[in-house]
Inverse folding.
């Protein structure tokens, strides 16, 4: 006979403003159960969890908690006010029979001493303190709302292991697919105010959800009902996008293999031709890069080359210097030593982790159009703002909604829409997955899969890194960074150890940017030859001419009727395009070599 539930919610109704948010939701938690609570941003997941925690009263429905059962709740934004130090805050959450030594051990495991003042904590430190307070009593039921927010990869993997070892029941809200898949044994889907339960973990949820939506749509057609276009997009478009994304799995494997082929055993990258785009084939080249903040070395002797089409993830613990390295590679921060060269015709669009400034009083449409009518310029072409909004899962009625009324996930979508509208061939994303729900992550992955340029991103979302990246730059400790081909899982397989390990403890590992001694000349020349000086001066004009010729040839080949009308001309122009693309690649490589030689000679003068 199954044990009675420790916590039971039934027929829960709740209205936010004039909008019904929960219209009969239910939740049942049995002893030791591991439940993932999923749904779109704004569907009411956090509200339902607050009602389960007893912090919010529903308008209708019942809540039952077994007498004597202990429950702890981690909100998205923990409040540490009223406590001088982190240790005071954590110990205040213990009951009379709870062990304060466990609380202190949890703080140590989460990288805190307990003596930190609560008024000066960062978002990540506050989240770690709140986690220690929730975990320390070892409650019968643990309710966690986005526990991985603001945590780095070592902390996420530590938390996974800690939660897996608990004997109590667990209810999780998270956008981290891998976190949910590893910890859940059942899934509760909150959709349009109602809940549906799958007695399997999150790993089986997305396929099950598609089946449910397909059955629902078939039933709707049988009844002759008309499904609203935007509602169909928001709910059923997920399935179509996921099916399209299956095609990209093969494409991603091919890109990763191409990157592996370019990486030498020492971790440096060779140039190879790739499909042409608006930028040159070489996007970024770094040699011997070093950076320190005071006595702390953030980057040490790092070298890499990134070519068009690469999707590079920068990974490491908080404080390792991920954003610093990103800024150095994109030319926004000068290194203390070494050189960084950006290729030709680079047009960069950036989304930083602080999410920039959004005017809360401005409407969603005005934010996208900058107040200039109803058109958004996307990639140099005009689009109606309503259509562009729908690409990012907004409905037309939200066009006049003030930004301040949007949820955190909706604001994240809005910022992505604004960043991706800017013409670019280099997309720089610093923590792009923060506050995004699973559907929006699907959308972002699809857009990055269709993006014709190069992507640099910093993220702690392991599943997202696996789905998007062709290469990983990993912080190995003490300012050392290593370049790996493939996604996050590929990087772990190549390292043979977890993300918290530090390569400096292994003397057999070479510095990631080390180059073969034979490749370096014994002594640099004192000055450039006349031939090199002439080439350096004339190559930019040569590259510009080749780019114009490539543009003309592409315009010719864009004509879908050209082959039928003039097959010989089609063949000639295709061959000419390939020749000019190869010439441009060679010119860019030579220009880069000469420019770096010039700087080296000037620096040694």
């Amino acid at each position: 006979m199954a044990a009675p539930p420790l916590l039971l919610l039934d027929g829960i109704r709740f209205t936010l403003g004039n909008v019904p948010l929960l219209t009969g939701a239910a939740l049942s938690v049995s002893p030791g159960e591991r439940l993932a609570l999923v749904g779109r941003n704004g569907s009411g997941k956090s509200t339902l969890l607050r009602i389960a925690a007893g912090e919010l009263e529903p308008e209708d429905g019942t809540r039952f908690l077994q007498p004597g059962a202990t429950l702890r709740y981690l909100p998205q934004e923990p409040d540490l006010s009223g406590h001088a130090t982190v240790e005071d805050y954590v110990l205040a959450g213990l009951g009379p029979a709870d062990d304060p030594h466990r609380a202190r051990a949890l703080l140590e495991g989460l990288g805190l001493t307990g003596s930190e003042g609560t008024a000066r904590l960062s978002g990540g430190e506050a989240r770690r303190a709140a986690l220690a307070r929730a975990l320390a009593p070892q409650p019968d039921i643990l309710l966690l709302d986005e526990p991985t927010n603001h945590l780095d990869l070592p902390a996420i993997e530590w938390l996974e292991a800690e939660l897996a070892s608990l004997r109590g029941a667990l209810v999780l809200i998270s956008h981290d697919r891998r976190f949910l898949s590893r910890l859940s044994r059942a899934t509760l889907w909150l959709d349009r105010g109602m809940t549906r339960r799958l007695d399997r973990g999150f790993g089986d949820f997305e396929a099950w959800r598609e089946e449910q939506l397909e059955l629902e749509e078939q039933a709707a057609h049988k009844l002759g009902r008309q499904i609203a276009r935007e509602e169909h997009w928001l709910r059923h478009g997920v399935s179509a996008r996921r099916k399209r994304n299956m095609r990209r799995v093969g494409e991603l494997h091919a890109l990763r293999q191409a990157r592996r082929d370019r990486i030498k055993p020492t971790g440096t990258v060779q140039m190879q031709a790739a499909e042409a785009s608006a930028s040159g084939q070489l996007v970024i080249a770094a040699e011997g890069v070093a950076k320190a903040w005071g006595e702390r070395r953030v980057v040490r002797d790092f070298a890499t080359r990134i070519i068009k089409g690469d999707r590079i993830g920068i990974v490491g613990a908080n404080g390792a210097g991920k954003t610093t390295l990103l800024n150095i590679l994109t030319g926004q921060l000068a290194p203390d030593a070494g050189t960084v060269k950006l290729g030709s015709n680079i047009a960069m669009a950036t989304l930083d982790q602080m999410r920039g400034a959004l005017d809360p009083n401005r409407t969603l449409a005005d934010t996208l159009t900058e107040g200039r009518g109803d058109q958004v310029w996307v990639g140099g072409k005009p689009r109606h703002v309503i259509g562009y909004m729908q690409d990012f899962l907004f409905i037309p009625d939200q066009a006049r909604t003030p930004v301040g009324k949007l949820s955190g996930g909706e604001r994240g979508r809005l910022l992505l829409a604004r960043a991706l509208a800017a013409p670019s061939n280099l997309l720089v994303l610093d923590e792009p997955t923060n506050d995004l729900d699973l559907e929006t992550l699907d959308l972002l992955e699809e857009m990055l899969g269709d993006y014709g340029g190069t992507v640099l991103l910093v993220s702690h979302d392991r599943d997202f890194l696996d789905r998007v990246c062709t290469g990983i730059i990993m912080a190995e400790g003490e300012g050392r960074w290593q370049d790996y081909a493939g996604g996050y899982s590929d990087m772990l397989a190549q390292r043979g150890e977890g993300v918290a390990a530090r390569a400096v403890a292994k003397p057999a590992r070479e510095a990631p940017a080390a180059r073969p001694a034979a490749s370096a000349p014994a002594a640099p020349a004192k000055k450039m030859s006349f031939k090199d000086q002439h080439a350096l001066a004339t190559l930019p004009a040569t590259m510009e001419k080749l780019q114009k010729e490539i543009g003309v040839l592409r315009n010719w080949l864009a004509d879908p009727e050209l082959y039928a009308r003039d097959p010989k001309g089609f063949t000639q122009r295709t061959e000419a395009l390939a020749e000019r693309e190869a010439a441009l690649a060679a010119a860019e490589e030579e220009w880069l070599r000469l420019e770096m030689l010039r700087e080296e000679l000037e620096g040694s003068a």
